[in-house]
Design a protein that fits this description.
Length: about 160
C-alpha cells in the first residue's frame, strides 16, 4: 500500500479526538506530510532524542491517559522490533489500541543516508520479521488482509496490528 493511500485512509477513519503516536524513521516524515492532525496534542513522537522503540510503549501510555478515545501507533519495522513485546502489556490490560508497522525490511532512514552519498548500505538491511508471529505471541490480532506495493527501492508492506 502506498503511504499516501495509507494516511488518507487512516485520516478518513480516525475520529478527531484520536491520538497518533509515531516513532523515528521514514514514516515520521511521511506522517508529518500526509496526516493532518485535528486537535492539540493529537500527535506525539520522540522529538527530544528521536529514540527508536518509542512508539509501542508510548501508544500504551496514550491509551491509558485517554481511555475513551482511540490511540494509534505508526512505527517502522526496525523500531517495532525494539519494543514490540510491550504489546503483551497492552493485551494483558485489554487496552484496545492499533499499531501499524511500515515493513520495508531495512533501517530506511539510515540506509538512504548511506546509499545516496556512498552508493552502498552498511548494516541497515534487516532480517525477516514475522509480524503475525509477534501478534500471536502477544495475544494481539493481525488482520488477514494485507496489501503489498512495490516502490523504487524495495518491496514494502504496511501491516496493521490490532490489539483488543
Ligand atoms: C535507539 C536509536 N537507535 C538508532 C537511531 C538512529 N535511527 C534513526 S531512524 C533509524 C532507522 C529506523 O528504521 P525503521 O524503524 O525500520 O524505520 P524506516 O526508516 O525504515 O521507515 C535509525 C537507526 C535512533 N533514532 N534511535
Ligand atoms: Mg524500516
Amino acid at each position: 500500500m502506498s503511504p499516501a493511500r495509507f494516511f488518507a485512509s487512516l485520516r478518513r477513519q480516525l475520529p478527531d479526538d484520536a491520538t497518533v503516536v509515531l516513532d523515528d524513521g521514514n514514516h515520521t516524515f511521511l506522517a508529518a506530510e500526509l496526516l493532518p492532525i485535528h486537535r492539540p496534542r493529537g500527535l506525539i513522537s520522540p522529538t527530544d532524542f528521536n529514540c527508536m522503540g518509542y512508539c509501542v510503549p508510548a501508544t500504551i501510555g496514550a491509551k491509558l491517559a485517554r481511555p475513551d478515545s482511540p490511540a494509534v501507533g505508526i512505527v517502522g519495522d526496525g523500531a517495532f522490533r525494539m519494543t514490540a513485546m510491550e504489546l503483551a502489556t497492552a493485551t494483558a490490560q485489554e487496552l484496545g489500541l492499533v499499531v501499524f508497522v511500515f515493513n520495508d525490511g531495512e533501517l530506511a532512514q539510515i540506509a538512504q543516508a548511506q546509499e545516496i552519498p556512498y552508493n552502498r548500505k552498511t548494516c541497515t538491511v534487516l532480517g525477516p520479521l514475522d509480524i503475525a508471529g509477534v501478534a500471536q505471541a502477544t495475544g494481539a490480532k493481525f488482520p488477514a488482509h494485507r496489501e503489498r506495493w512495490r516502490d523504487r527501492r524495495s518491496d514494502s508492506r504496511c501491516a496493521g496490528l490490532r490489539q483488543s
